[in-house]
């Protein structure tokens, strides 16, 4: 029996149910100057807009929306919700901005980027984080065969994990000597996947490339060139040889394993342990116009998150069956289960404990920490998406404009009051996690010191540097 995000995860029970049915993250970050904590209004009352359309991408981590719909949590809150899959993250973003979607399962970087005007300009907010972890990096069989002989092995002959990108460096150099680019895929320029893949590559001594002002390619001075591929298309793109690997959410790493076309080499919790992943995003003016509706949506999603993590993972088998339906993720239940039931399969015959691979409720997974938003902003600056230096206060103010713990707490505290969720599942915090370790390169992150953090990276823009088409310039 393993422990998943604070509860016992009984895989045998999960698997039996499937056959039958077909460390606490620090909750008190560095206090602000007043020593205060984020407060919340109580937004309770009749919903102003009952009929809603929410968007999602076909990924396992859209689960809170599917569960809120299928288990009746939206209906309990007086909401009639339609869930619509979107073709890609750009279409989803445009749908939220344009009003065709009332909210969506979003990349954490999307509302942040829209607010600062990177790619598009819109006032979006993230009042809830949907999950922690859930991604992995997969390499093609060809590349895996090139690095596998040099990897450290355990006593049983299997590779030791996590696997550093330093073992990929000779392969990239061989490609370069043969005049071939080494291409990898990620899902969107402001996706967690882009930043996690870049983080892993840079930690292993490989440059993933920089963005110049107005550039969305991000391949300037790159050892490894990254490009965008929608998540469900990743395995086919890998199989076609267009890319040599990718970073994506589940079940699209497991799909490569089951198709025997690729090998996951690292999960994102091994790059940054308990990293925030997707958010529930919507327009700021929607939340202002429909405050009770917004609170009702958040309450329904929080109830779904609790359902997903409760009772030793007892509900995960049912969640897998729901997600496997064509109107949701649409992958085989066996493929989804390979990463959602307390294990992760790296190769056929190499399935390992992965207790915290998907966390939806435990470890305060739903709380939208300012420090999480600031981490994304630091990576945008690190790679040139933010063209020039910003002072620390800019990072703080931007995070507070987008991440809205006040709205989260309004919903969560009402659920506590009603006895739906336990009081200790809601953090008392100023919105900052405090110092965070667990990064693959050993660098400590403190969201209250963004510029100091940026100065710690051997690869990445330094204070005063800018990027042009000719490369990096400045001190």
TrEMBL record:
Subcellular location: Endomembrane system
Keywords: Cell inner membrane, Cell membrane, Membrane, Transport
Gene Ontology cellular-component terms listed: endomembrane system
Database matches in InterPro entries: NrtA/CpmA_ABC-bd_dom (IPR044527)
Residues in coiled coil: none
Broad class of the protein's primary localization: membrane
Pfam families on file: NMT1_2
Classification via PANTHER family: ALIPHATIC SULFONATES-BINDING PROTEIN-RELATED (PTHR30024), BLL4572 PROTEIN (PTHR30024:SF43)
Protein name according to UniProt: ABC transporter substrate-binding protein
């Amino acid at each position: 029996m393993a422990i998943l995000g604070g509860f016992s995860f009984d895989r045998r029970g999960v698997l039996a149910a499937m056959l039958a049915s077909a460390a606490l993250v620090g909750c008190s970050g560095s206090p602000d100057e007043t020593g205060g904590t984020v407060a919340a209004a109580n937004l309770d009352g009749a919903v102003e807009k009952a009929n809603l359309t929410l968007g999602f991408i076909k990924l396992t981590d859209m689960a809170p929306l599917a569960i809120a719909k299928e288990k009746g949590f939206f209906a309990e809150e007086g909401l009639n919700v339609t869930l619509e899959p979107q073709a890609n993250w750009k279409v989803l973003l445009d749908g939220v901005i344009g009003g065709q979607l009332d909210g969506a399962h979003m990349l954490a970087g999307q509302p942040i980027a829209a607010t600062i005007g990177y790619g598009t300009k819109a006032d979006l907010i993230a009042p809830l984080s949907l999950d922690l972890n859930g991604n992995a990096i997969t390499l093609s069989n060809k590349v895996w065969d090139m690095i596998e002989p040099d990897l450290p092995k355990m006593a049983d002959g299997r590779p030791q994990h996590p696997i550093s990108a330093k073992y990929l460096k000779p392969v990239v150099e061989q490609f370069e000597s043969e005049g071939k680019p080494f291409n990898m895929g990620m899902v969107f320029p402001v996706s967690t996947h882009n930043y996690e893949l870049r983080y892993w590559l840079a930690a292993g001594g490989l440059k993933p490339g920089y963005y110049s002002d107005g550039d969305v390619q991000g391949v300037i001075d790159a050892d490894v060139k990254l490009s965008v591929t929608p998540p469900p298309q990743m395995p086919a793109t890998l199989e076609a040889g267009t890319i040599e690997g990718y970073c994506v959410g589940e079940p699209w790493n497991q799909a490569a394993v089951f198709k025997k076309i690729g090998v996951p080499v690292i999960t994102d919790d091994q790059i940054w342990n308990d990293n925030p992943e997707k958010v529930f995003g919507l327009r700021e003016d929607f939340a202002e116009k429909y405050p009770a509706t917004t609170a009702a949506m958040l309450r329904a999603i929080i109830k779904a998150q609790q359902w997903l993590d409760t009772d030793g993972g007892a509900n995960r088998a049912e969640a897998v069956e729901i997600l496997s339906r064509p109107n949701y993720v649409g992958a085989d239940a066996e493929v989804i289960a390979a990463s959602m039931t307390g294990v992760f399969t790296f190769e056929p015959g190499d399935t390992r404990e992965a207790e915290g691979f998907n966390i939806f409720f435990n470890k305060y997974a739903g709380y939208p920490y300012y420090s999480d938003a600031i981490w994304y902003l630091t990576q945008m600056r690190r790679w040139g998406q933010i063209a020039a230096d910003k002072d620390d206060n800019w990072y703080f103010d931007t995070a507070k404009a987008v991440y809205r713990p006040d709205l989260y707490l309004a919903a969560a505290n009402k659920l506590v009051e009603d006895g739906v969720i336990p009081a200790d599942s809601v953090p008392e915090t100023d919105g900052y996690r405090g110092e965070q370790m667990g990064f693959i390169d050993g660098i400590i992150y403190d969201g209250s010191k963004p510029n100091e953090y940026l100065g710690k990276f051997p690869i990445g823009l330094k204070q005063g540097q800018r990027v042009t088409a000719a490369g990096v310039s400045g001190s």
